[in-house]
Design brief:
The chain is mainly α. It has two helices and no strands. The chain has helices at 3-29, 35-66.
Length: 78
């Protein structure tokens, strides 16, 4: 996986967590919505955050496996 793709996925996961965290915080302070509405959206938030965390873990694992332990040796050109 390229560094560019990994950065994109990290940003996407961070944005997902931020958006759902803000929504949960705002819903906790809002008393105009029904309990069912809050339960459904809290469930969606937990699932989305779990997907974001899973994405970060997968990207880290792939990047760690694909990166060489040390830089390749340069072969002198005659």
């Amino acid at each position: 996986m390229s560094r560019r793709a990994a950065v994109f996925l990290y940003v996407f996961a961070g944005w997902t967590v931020w958006v759902w965290a803000v929504l949960i915080r705002n819903m906790a302070a809002d008393h105009t919505h029904s309990t069912g509405f809050k339960v459904v959206h809290d469930t969606l938030a937990v699932i989305s955050i779990a997907f974001a965390v899973g994405t970060v873990l997968i990207v880290r694992r792939v990047r760690r496996v694909r990166q060489p332990a040390e830089p390749p040796e340069r072969v002198p050109v005659p």
